[in-house]
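Researcher: Structure prediction, please.
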Amino acid sequence: MPKINITDVILRDAHQSLFATRMRTEDMLPICPKLDAIGYWSLECWGGATFDACVRFLKEDPWERLCKLREALPNTRLQMLLRGQNLLGYRHYSDDVVRAFVRRSAENGMDVFRIFDALNDPRNLKTAIEATKAAGKHAQGTICYTVSPVHDVAGFVKLGKELASMGCDSIAIKDMAGLLTPFVTADLVKALKDSLDLPLHLHSHATSGLADMCHLKAIENGCDTIDTAISSMAGGTSHPPTESLVAALRGTEYDTGLDLEAIQEVGMYFYQVRKKYHQFESEFTGVDTRVQTNQVPGGMISNLANQLKEQNALDRMGAVLEEIPRVRKDLGYPPLVTPTSQIVGTQAVLNVLTEKRYQTITNEVKLYLQGRYGAAPAAVNPTLQQQAIGMEDLIDCRPADLLKPELDRLTKEIGTIAASDEDVLTYAMFPEIGRTFLEQRAAGTLVPEPLEPPPSGMAKSAPTEFNINVHGETYHIKVTGAGHKDQAERHFYFTIDDIPEEVVVETLDELVLTGGADGAVRKAIAGKRPKPSLPGHVSTSMPGNIVDVLVREGDRVTAGQSVIVTEAMKMETEIQAPIDGTVTGVFVAKGDSVNPDEVLLEISP
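Model: Predicted structure follows.
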């Protein structure tokens, strides 16, 4: 039997699972020569959430990262995770955008495209697979493993055969939540190998503590390649350690042929690197057998924890984990992987925090129930579907067939701020943050988020390092400390171009009342917003950002009319007017950060 190959996920899924995809390119490049010499089948280094994190948080050009990794790893296949018709975003893109994205990724150095769809709907994989083959690259068709009353080995084998017929070069089992058990793994791998004449890869997270045993059973039953992570960034919500598998198979018929000592040296490098990102690690990155019940992937748990922490509701995590399976059942048992994990998770959080199930329904849940993400694995809750979409038509065709070509439009929209085809595709993935990134890059004002938390006493959302421009002169400001936030006179400590300074800020503006139609309209001065207290006060259910304000002061609205669109956990929600009346106060604008204890908009009867 041929040796077992290894794909190491250290440059993508390991840090995505453990510390929110925050590893910077500067911490990857120094170790690349040693990684390149190991002899991996491939290194997963791009795709998934890395593109989003680069643009949103790290202020890095993800295309530049790919090019640098290609140059630094000349002897190793580079591998990426691609969400089928969703590419690296959270919606379906038109076929011309999918083809362009795959082509440019290949031209910039990508070799292996692991292509999956969150619903295991083959129609959503078709264009990406065709584009990968057209580029002369390796198309890896992916089966998203999950457990439900409608998922079984026979169904996964059927999907595997469909992927093979579409021209895939290999098949991957993607166990994103760590749900596989050893003997189920043996049955599934054997069934696939008996039915398909293609190499088989296994990707299983260690969340439940079973993945190491699943690896061995997969190997014994014919699996060709196993995904692992360097030991210093392995285990828990990440993957089983590379070194352990190499040691376990050494001297057997399955020997990987890899140098254990060389991999251990790489592991020590990442042991030090991981320390830099400690603030992004949550308490939910260890072994958690509850995943066998709630089926929540590790990265999703970390995301949920951060959202609940921001709302001072971390104690509700247990209730959210209990609600997720109920929401999943209502939506027809989708596998929990991006974007369905965000769709289900965000709705579960809303259901728990509002204490009334489906009082608020995200736009993505509405689109899902309409069929715009593809075919649900099972029947959805008809009452919820009626509540969410009303009399709108259901979609039973391939969702992308309803999308007109959009690449030309996107190119015109972003204009000259895009310096390349890659820039246009960055804008296509994330229009708002993509445009901001490109504008800041052009202005030379890109500043990554700080690696350390803000100084004690400062608001978490306050910037701690930035540039200001005064009378044509640019100054670099770094905040190093602050006095208590509730003091009337507050001391701030910072450096200006590395020179220490101190300033005292005295608060002058407070909330004031101004007359309105009924003489009781609250206005917010100096960025402060009133707390909800009246029936016509519009607020949000969870912290997020304003995507759009749909009304203006003076507009007449009716109860149930959408007035504001917010984004939280990468999902959008339309906030509706609670009463009929006239808009007498608008306290937010597009791009603002908001919290549940703030009035966003006021409506007077």
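Model: The longest strand covers residues 473-482.
Researcher: Thanks, that helps.
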